[in-house]
Every structure is written in C-alpha cells, then in structure tokens.
Amino acid sequence: MEHIFIQGKNRELMPLVLLHGTGGDEQSLLQLAEIIAPDASVLSFRGDVSENGANRFFARYADGSFDLASLKEKTGSLIAEVKELAPKYEFDAARVVAVGYSNGANIAANAILTNDASFQKAILFHAMPSGEEMPDFALNQTAVFVTAGVNDPLVNAAGSQALIDGLQARGADVGALWTENGHNLTLAEVEAARDWYVAQHD
C-alpha cells in the first residue's frame, strides 16, 4: 500500500499507524497524530481498494455490509506490511498504536479480533464489528480506546457496544467515549484519545 513515514522526535514513544476512513488518504489523519502524540513516529497508509474512486482498506457490498473475504485478505496484508516496514524505518512493530477512523478503524478492529500477532494497542474512532464469527484467543495483553456517537447514522450504538463487549469478553482493556454526535470526528474524541495514549506510557 502507498504510505508515508514520519520519524518522530522521541523514539521512546509508541509509533502511530494511521488508517483513514472511506475517501481519505495517507494525509487525512496527520493532524490527529499531531494532537495525539506530536513527537511520536507516524506510519500512515492509503487504502488500496477503490469504491467509485474513494480509497478504502477493504471492499463492501452495495448495502454497506462488509465483503468478509476482502476484509480477511486485506487485514492479513496490513499486518504483514507493518511488520515488513518496521526494520526499514527502525521502529518496533510490537509497540505500535493503530489509529483508525471509520473504515480504517474497522480493519484495525478486525486485525485485533482475528489475528493474535496483530496490534496490541489501538484507538478506534467510530468502528463496528464485522459480523464474522471470531476466534476465541485471549486479548489480555491488548488495550483499546473506542469512541462512538449515539446518533451515528453509519455505525449505530448497538454496533459500537457490540464491538466493545466483544473486546472485553476476551480480556482486552477497553476505554470508551460516547458523544451525542453522528459519524463526524470531534475534537473531544481526539483529545480523549491523546489522554489515553499518554496514560499507556505511565
């Protein structure tokens, strides 16, 4: 996948892996990274699936449901690419924090839930479960921060709660922030994500 890497001023900080929403690109979440961890290294991807010209990380059907075969394939590719790029850019793949919004958050969540060699930490803005039957390996070493909007027309509250419940049921440490907003990302969510990120270093 197309990507950019920005070397952080502080290599002790956990690197961020940025995963944009539908129609975004590798530049879309850079401002968020500046708020969450301005001195951390950043690896930002551009999804290589096109939906009527809009970049996505995996395909979906016309009704909005996930193409689970595409999701599985692209999830594996994403995990492999992060590990492949780690020595090139001299960061520890085991310490990265996936930061995803919408489509990007969905693939990050799927990676955590389906691959035990995936992300150990993640910030998921407006994510939902895939609906696929999940393996049952433990997530005791995993920490996730989830934000959701109770009025989100694309990811309903029940879907967000199902994702949170699914992570917690397998032992993940889950922090959550609910807002009254819709699918748009708010400054309050990003600032809460920053606070969560800082707490992970304590």
UniProtKB/TrEMBL annotation:
<dbReference type="GO" id="GO:0016787">
    <property type="term" value="F:hydrolase activity"/>
</dbReference>
<protein>
    <submittedName>
        <fullName>Phospholipase/carboxylesterase</fullName>
    </submittedName>
</protein>
<feature type="domain" description="Dienelactone hydrolase">
    <location>
        <begin position="76"/>
        <end position="183"/>
    </location>
</feature>
<dbReference type="Pfam" id="PF01738">
    <property type="entry name" value="DLH"/>
</dbReference>
<dbReference type="InterPro" id="IPR029058">
    <property type="entry name" value="AB_hydrolase_fold"/>
</dbReference>
<dbReference type="InterPro" id="IPR002925">
    <property type="entry name" value="Dienelactn_hydro"/>
</dbReference>
